[in-house]
Amino acid sequence: GNSVTQMEGPVTLSEEAFLTINCTYTATGYPSLFWYVQYPGEGLQLLLKATKADDKGSNKGFEATYRKETTSFHLEKGSVQVSDSAVYFCALSSNSGYALNFGKGTSLLVTP
Amino acid sequence: GAGVSQSPSNKVTEKGKDVELRCDPISGHTALYWYRQSLGQGLEFLIYFQGNSAPDKSGLPSDRFSAERTGGSVSTLTIQRTQQEDSAVYLCASSSNPGLASDTQYFGPGTRLTVL
Which residues of B54-77 are buried (b: 16+ CB within 10 A; e: fewer)? Predict the structure, then answer.
């Protein structure tokens, strides 16, 4: 079946540090890949997505590239801010179904 | 509406009672989804609606859980005879192009259910 594995948190970084959150997936066919973010006290928001191999999704300085050869969709940001503190979820949507399969989430804390 | 709305935002109930959770999707979105977010299990899919029918109910954990959608809009998730393990945040999402690679699900703020 489909599954998503992302790195365990919590991740603590200083402001302006480089961020990588690893995400790998197992899926049949050609899934679409997503990063969702959940800020404290708020609902899930779509951060970025990619729908085919080698696509790069980007938003708010975050980027992730759909790597089919390594079945990965790692999230990166060059310089994090305190306001980026949140829980980040990697997810996939397979082309044979409608449900999103989520990773467990990675909590990020950015300190001044 | 501007986004997906859910009510109530918080619900505390006693074990054995029935609860109803409501979701109002983004206007015009044909697809509606329910998920559950709990500490031990992460985010789990429960059920998917296309219009008023539910072609995928595979995530409902037991027959105590049911959902309906009326008028292709509002959906209600009902949990009968609640158990403590039902305590979680119940999330609703909607989308406009289900089954397409370009589809994006938009989530509501969730209902936090606590079963005492």
Answer: bebeebbeeeebebebeebbebeb
Per-residue pLDDT, A96: 61
pLDDT at B99 over 60: yes
- Asked if B33 has any chain A CB less than 8 Å from its own CB, the reply is yes
- Look at B109 and A43 and tell me if their CB atoms are within 8 Å: yes
pLDDT tens for residues B13-68?
999 999 999 999 999 999 999 999 998 778 999 999 999 999 889 899 999 999 99
Please report the beta strands in chain B, taking only residues with DSSP state E, as ranges in sequence order.
5-7, 10-13, 19-24, 31-38, 42-50, 53-56, 65-69, 75-79, 88-95, 106-107, 111-115
To the nearest whole Å, the CA of A79 is away from the closest chain B CA by 27
d(CA A73, CA A59): 14
Residue B1 has pLDDT above 60, yes or no: no
Reduced to 3 states (helix: H, G, I; strand: E, B; else coil), residue B5 is strand
Confidence of residue A95 (pLDDT cuts 50, 70, 90): low
- A103 in reach of chain B (CB within 8 A): yes
Q: Classify residue A104 by burial, with Cβ atoms within 10 Å: 0-12, 13-18, 19+.
A: middle
Residue A67 buriedness (CB in 10 A; 0-12 / 13-18 / 19+): middle
What is the count of residue pairs from A and B with beta carbons less than 8 Å apart?
57
Partner residue facing B104 (CB), from A43, A49, A52: A49
Residues 6+ apart with CB under 8 A from B62: none
